[in-house]
Q: What sequence folds into this?
């Protein structure tokens, strides 16, 4: 079970029409809708379960520029400013703070990759500090160990996944946006080849523009519309432990494990990149495109089980718009944490931070991370279906860049000046044979 998610009250009946309908109340959907509402557009956000209940409340909470792929770095930098700006202008608490992120290593090849990234980041105006062995030992004092080196990225930070998406949805409601939980979008209607309405389980919403921010469900939704969106989801397990008296680093990662302090003093613990692949028909269908990605990450991936088939988010089936869909059968994707991984993570965390020995495990949970073949999200209007904007495939990095991505999607939906160059994210890159370079980190 994951830690309790902040609850917000929303209205059961969606409006008859809206300038923009946003499908999916994860961090991407809520920030998109928030920035649209700030521009004075009427916006309806429909969420099949609860706001933030899937990936957006199940993650580590890292909001980082450190080690970002060049294509995502501009969005990551803008996002850090927007997290702060959002808190100041809305008065809502997402738990964001720039605590800095600490990376420790005993692997010289890894340290030298970080140094190359630092040189590249400098050209983008991002400051990050390489740590000598002595500095790493000082910053990582709580580990009580020697390190060959490390990195500290002072302007990066963390937000609280249990609070962030509900906080943004609350701000959206204050701006007049309409938000609807337990309201699945079943499909899209078109007129003259462009979007004309969204069909939800609670009625039809007339609109000319729809944003599909459905996370791990995006590919199967797109399939209903004849849109091919290669997406794979991998199941990552994570746990939290109770607060300890000692002050440990707020956010630290080593090859073995990561630890992230929550505002209430608990620590979230996970192993970077470690995940299970639950095979599905969709997975097999897109597998050829994912070979380069899996070849890079295979050391940390293990075969999973039948869970993803049972939950149905990757179904190949076509569904009807006048009957319950797989999204109404599974309101919240709540995959089982892998017990082996949880045990291993806990053991490694105590090895890294011995002060955690007395802390109790409070929660253990898992989330499906939705990935694209190149590890960069698909954001943009889908060619051939005017008015349909895809915003999914955040590949394990979407929480931290949520504000920037939401701003960019709102720019595209409203015809505004894009906050960053949208070209690297265009979904049409998935339709050809060129798959782009797999993200480095
Ligand atoms: C264990 C773990 C650790 C992670 N750590 C980090 C991290 O430290 N930093 C980071 O930046 N990222 C991290 N991520 C990734 C990050 O959580 C995701 O990239 C991000 O939350 C994606 O947000 P989203 O809004 O696209 O998707 P989601 O949060 O999955 O939201 C999609 C929503 O759409 C809804 N939906 C789907 N289809 C429909 C429909 N048809 N109608 C209505 N609603 C629908 C779903 O119910 C869901 O609530 C991690 C992920 C996991 C699982």
A:
């Amino acid at each position: 079970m994951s830690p309790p998610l902040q609850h917000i009250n929303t209205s059961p009946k969606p409006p008859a029409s809206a300038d923009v309908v946003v499908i999916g109340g994860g961090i991407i959907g809520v920030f998109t809708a928030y920035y649209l509402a700030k521009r004075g557009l009427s916006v309806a956000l429909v969420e099949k379960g609860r706001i933030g209940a899937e990936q957006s409340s199940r993650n580590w909470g890292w909001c980082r520029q450190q080690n970002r792929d060049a294509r995502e770095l501009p969005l990551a930098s803008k996002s850090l400013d927007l997290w702060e700006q959002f808190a100041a202008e809305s008065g809502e608490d997402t738990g964001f703070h720039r605590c800095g992120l600490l990376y420790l290593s005993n692997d010289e090849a890894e340290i030298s990759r970080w140094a190359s990234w630092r040189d590249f980041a400098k050209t983008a105006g991002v400051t990050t500090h390489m740590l000598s062995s002595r500095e790493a030992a000082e910053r990582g004092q709580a580990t009580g160990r020697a390190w060959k080196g490390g990195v500290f990225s002072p302007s990066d930070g963390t937000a609280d996944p249990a609070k962030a998406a509900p906080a943004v949805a609350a701000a959206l409601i204050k701006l007049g946006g309409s938000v609807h939980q337990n309201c699945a979008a079943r499909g899209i209607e078109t007129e003259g080849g462009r979007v004309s309405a969204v069909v939800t389980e609670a009625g039809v919403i007339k609109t000319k523009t729809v944003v599909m921010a459905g996370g791990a469900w995006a590919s199967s939704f797109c399939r209903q519309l004849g849109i091919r969106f290669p997406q794979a989801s991998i199941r990552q397990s994570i746990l939290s432990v109770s607060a300890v008296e000692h002050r440990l680093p707020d956010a630290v990662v080593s090859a073995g494990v990561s630890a992230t302090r929550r505002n209430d003093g608990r620590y979230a613990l996970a192993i970077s990149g470690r995940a299970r692949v639950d095979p599905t028909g969709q997975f097999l269908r897109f597998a050829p495109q994912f070979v380069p990605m899996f070849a890079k990450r295979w050391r940390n991936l293990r075969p999973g089980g039948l869970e993803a088939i049972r939950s149905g988010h990757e179904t190949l089936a076509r569904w009807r718009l006048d009957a319950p869909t797989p999204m109404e059968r599974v309101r919240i994707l709540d995959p089982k944490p892998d017990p082996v991984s949880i045990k291993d993570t806990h053991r490694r965390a105590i090895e890294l931070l011995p002060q955690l020995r007395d802390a109790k495990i409070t929660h253990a949970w898992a989330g499906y991370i939705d990935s694209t073949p190149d590890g960069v999200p698909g954001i943009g209007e889908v060619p051939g279906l005017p008015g349909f904007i895809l915003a999914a495939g955040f590949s394990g990095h979407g929480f931290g860049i949520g504000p920037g991505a939401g701003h960019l999607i709102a720019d595209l939906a409203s015809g505004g000046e894009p906050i960053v160059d949208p070209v690297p994210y265009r979904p049409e890159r998935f339709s050809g044979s060129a798959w782009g370079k797999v993200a480095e980190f």
User: Anything to note?
Assistant: The first strand starts at residue 20 and ends at 23. The two ends are 28 Å apart (CA to CA).
